[in-house]
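Page header: ASSEMBLY MODEL / two components / 591 residues total.
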Amino acid sequence: MADTSTKGIGKVIFSSSLGTLIEWYDFYIFGMLAKTISVQFFPEGNETAALLSTLAIFAAGFLVRPFGALFFGRLGDLIGRKSTFLLTLVLMGGSTFLIGLVPSYKAIGIAAPLLVLLLRLIQGLALGGEYGGAATYVAEHAPANRRGYFTAWIQTTATLGLFVALGVIMVVKSNMSDAAFTAEWGGWRYPFWISILLVGVSIYIRLKMSESPLYAAIKKEGKLSVNPLKESFGHKGNFKMVLLALFGAVMGQGVIWYTGQFYAQSFLENTCKLEFMQSRSILLWAIALATPFFLFFGWLSDKIGRKWIMLTGMLLGVLFYRPIFDTFLKDTDIKKWTKTEYSFIKEEMKVSMHGEDSVLQISAQYQTPDQSKFTRVVTDTLYKNRDELQHIVNVNKNAVFINKEINSTTYYKFIFLVWIMVIFVTMVYGPIAAFLVELFPTKIRYTSMSLPYHIGNGVFGGLVPFLATLLSTTFVNDPLVGLWYPIGVAALCFVVGALYLNNKIDEDVND
Amino acid sequence: MNQLKRIMGVLWMLLAPVIIYFLVMGAVHNIGAGNKDINKPIPWIIIIAIFTPIALGLMIFGYYSLKGEYDKLPESSEEI
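Prediction written out in full:
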């Protein structure tokens, strides 16, 4: 009979989710402050620093997370869930805090990017162990009939982490000048330092928690695994399930998640050239409005099974990504905007000297009859002793259109479309923790579920921007070509999942 | 359904070397061709180093499928 006791589950979810929230907070502040960080630690024009910068950004995301999953997963199965994900929390939050203390490249030279790389690697390793611990811990406390619902709470922490990161950066930024914020020991370091407060609170809460009851039970019975890595990946029966989890669920979940929550924003900003604040607010509204659906789909998976909810999310992504992104392109197409008469708002002119010649940049802002705005930028080199105006006329056809501000109707339409994509994310992501927990036995669960999860998210998901760029540089005529990567991976995962996965909920995870 | 699972196993096995081939060719064509991340060797080395074992995993998955290892999924940990 299923255990239906939920006493103390709120505390369990809170303490587990807080760590995952910090994980996301750390992830977002590094991304949001990337430009400032690169100026402080990785100066341009130095090849070694550039190499370290690439490694710091790539290695922590792709190379290290699966290793962290193996290392901390093994530890979690050997010494317990509670102690392990307490350790990952300290390492992750501690390294974030220390990044905020590393002196700049100007002060200590190449040691600065080296230290940042080292701390990023520790952060990535710890990150590899955090989610598996939280998911396992919550799932092993949850009653069988509500496992999907309770573990879905952990999935909402990505959104909360994003909002906390954004909030902290905005509060710091609004209380100082740009110069004070970007200075060597300026405000950009505060969000890194604040991380230690969050970690402190989380450690305090986690220390008060007890070990997972299922883990404690098998420990008492002397049934702990002696070598979780060997049992997870060396034992054919379990390795089969690891492969099935990866190719039938997590791989597709990774690309759907990354496309909906990250690639969409990058596309609006870089391809559609939407104004900075507008593209961000579209994503924030969409994520905020979609977040409760993590819980809904987690709850629903307890009723009707996990498999078809996750696979439907993937299938919807496969079917709708191209039409949705095509709508973004069409609605921000400048040719369409300038078909009708548009009015001039203001113009700015900048001249910067380059030796005897100079570079002239004219930025003119316009408004269309439907209240959309755009900036047309014309850049030209002015050669000494030549006719300046002649040059401007010649380069008119090379004008670029940036800072596009869509009108309110299109703005709400874009929020809706991004919201739809985040709904797909909630479908694939909401039930996944419960699904993974149910796939593996208690004694090797932490190890077995962490690796496919981090390959799916870190590798398949994290590669969306890189492979999208690869495709768009190879096939230059299709601006949507980058979508074939997530579509292809999700389609493959859908076929594998539909054919091979079971929709049955495993009520007994105490085995 | 089990017959289909086994037939698809061949496809998964073939897909793995195709993926590795495309990644290596992508690296050859793009390294040094510009100044984006995609033109640097490090990301390619990392990606190929990580994707090769994953592709091999897909090949093993295909092999297991072909052999009928997924005809029936275990219903409890004792069956694993």
